[in-house]
Amino acid sequence: MKTVSITNHLPAATAIACALAGAANAALVNGGFESGLAGWTTADQVGSDGTFFVQSGVLSPVNGFDVPAPPQGINAAMTDSGAGGAHVLYQDFTIPTGVTSATVAFSLFLNNGAGTYFNINSLDWALANPAGGTNLNQQARVDLMTITGDAFSVAAGNVLQNLFQTTAQTPAVTGYNAFSVDVTAVFQAHAGETIRLRFAETDNVNFFNLGVDNVSVTAVPAPAACSVLLGLLAGSRRRSRR
């Protein structure tokens, strides 16, 4: 949050207004899932099993696996299924103009029954390889995307910034871990545009629970207007003393 230094020569109301002008949240709604999945869109690849569910308590929504309680409030979003599948959860929002810094924050829980991850360059859970078998695909990722591409796309033309992706070094099972990612460059390059925040999970090896909670998008605008206001008020104060 931008901190504005105010002397006692300026009205208190002006100080408060300028301090508040230093930070603003982009229009992301229901980031804690306390209203269920309202404001979010889910999609599941054709032929796959399971989806993103609202999760509360300490059991997964379908299989009843032991999972940690949501870190914020009583609800989280979580994938669960009885068979292989690919699932996405996303929300579109408009980037403010004049952003000087921006972050996307979220908490993730991983429960990967495969014991390791298989990150192929696709979210397709049933993608066949040339030999006729199925590529092992067990992964999770978080991306900022355009809104024009397919919700399951990982193409460079659709993914503006990857915020998280499982790797061979990622633990198979974690508690909820908090992430905060700098997205200033993307926000500045796409000021005023509507983009997408996507959470994705694919599993065709063994079960996989991806839990999501405490999601926020924060953008700090340029303080130019407030600086001008302070300058005018300070000038007026000096003139009044003459």
Write the layout of secondary structure elements.
Layout: H1 12-21, E1 24-25, E2 41-44, E3 51-55, E4 76-80, E5 85-94, E6 99-112, E7 138-145, E8 159-165, E9 177-182, H2 184-189, E10 194-203, E11 208-221, H3 224-240
Antiparallel strand pairs: 1-11, 2-5, 3-4, 4-11, 5-10, 6-9, 6-11, 7-8, 7-10
Description:
The protein has two domains: 1-22 and 223-242, no CATH class; 24-222, Jelly Rolls, CATH 2.60.120.200. Helix content is 14%, strand content 35%. It has helices at residues 12-21, 184-189, 224-240; strands spanning 24-25, 41-44, 51-55, 76-80, 85-94, 99-112, 138-145, 159-165, 177-182, 194-203, 208-221. The strands form two sheets. Strands 1, 3, 4, 6, 9 and 11 form a six-stranded antiparallel beta sheet that branches. A five-stranded antiparallel beta sheet has the order 2-5-10-7-8, with no helix packed on it. The longest helix is centred in the C-terminal third of the chain and has 17 residues, at 224-240. The radius of gyration is 22 Å and the shape is globular. The protein starts with 11 loop residues before the first helix and ends with a helix. 31% of the residues are buried. Mean pLDDT is 86; it is low at 1-23 and 225-240.
